[in-house]
Amino acid sequence: MADFTTNSIKRKKNMSNRNATVENALVFFLLAFAVMAKTVFSQNCQSTGCPGLKECCSSWGSCGIKDDQCGFWCFSGLCHLKNKSYGFNYNVSAGPRGPIESIVTPSLFKRIMSKVGNNCPAKGFYTHQAFISAVKSFQAYKGTVAKREIAAILTHFAHGSKGFCYKEDKARGRYCSPSKKYPCEPGKQYYGRGPLQSIRWNEYYGAAGIFLRLPMLKDPDMVAHSPEVAFKLALWFWTTNVRPALYLGFGETSKRVDGRLCDNLHPDDTKNLVKQYVDLCKILGVTPDEGLSC
């Protein structure tokens, strides 16, 4: 009887151990699945950007604020550029320089816009007067400006709007992230608008609105209604997120404007972007920097 009882206890103990092992394996599987799901979801940051103003998109496709994500291997967004160097100083902001009106003349602007097709929704929307007015509203450009930088700006503006053909991103979405400082307005969407349609999310519209003293958070559509506001939003993003990286070359500006340009999945787009920049530099009579690749 004693042996039977002992064996029964052993069987129950073994069964309990097996159940515990199965439960532990199941928990581990679920945790691993959750991590993988989160990782897969986070890959979207290379195509949609990160919602937080303090976040960057790492080369692994995840949003974060840590140095290992926003440091040397930062893919796009708010990268930490301190002590970051490739061993070269490509200096996109190098001379020659001049007033913005003498660099982007009406004839040059007309030449650029002449390539906009008649079937383009933004045909006639982007004007020379709006561009000059927007540029001169920023302190950094009230004096003389570098031809290289203006060439880079116009190149990215043209690319971001599909050759100035669109003033709104065709792939629309709400792009609303939880934020106490920049809460989303009911019924409003914060997709890309203007010449840099990689600018998305309520926090960017909110921060830009405060800087520009415009109600962009309450009325994001104003970007698509006013060419000057459209250029101002793009220039705010440029001066805030891109301009600090000019010394790293045109390729680095491409990463910070839109990380998809450097993901190796769209090589033709990247080549065309570089070609546009080089061609525009030649038109402006300036040698392009050597840091063209991402």
TrEMBL record:
One of its GO terms (molecular function) is chitin binding. Gene3D superfamilies: 1.10.530.10, Endochitinase, domain 2. InterPro entries: Glyco_hydro_19, Glyco_hydro_19_cat, Lysozyme-like_dom_sf. Pfam families: Glyco_hydro_19. Residues 103-243 form the Glycoside hydrolase family 19 catalytic domain. Disulfide bonds join C50-C63, C56-C70, C120-C165, C176-C184, C262-C294. The keyword Signal applies. It comes from the Eukaryota. Keywords: Chitin-binding, Disulfide bond, Glycoprotein, Plant defense, Signal. Transmembrane segments: none annotated. One of its GO terms (biological process) is chitin catabolic process. Belongs to the glycosyl hydrolase 19 family. Chitinase class I subfamily. This is Glycoside hydrolase family 19 catalytic domain-containing protein. It comes from Brassica campestris (Field mustard).
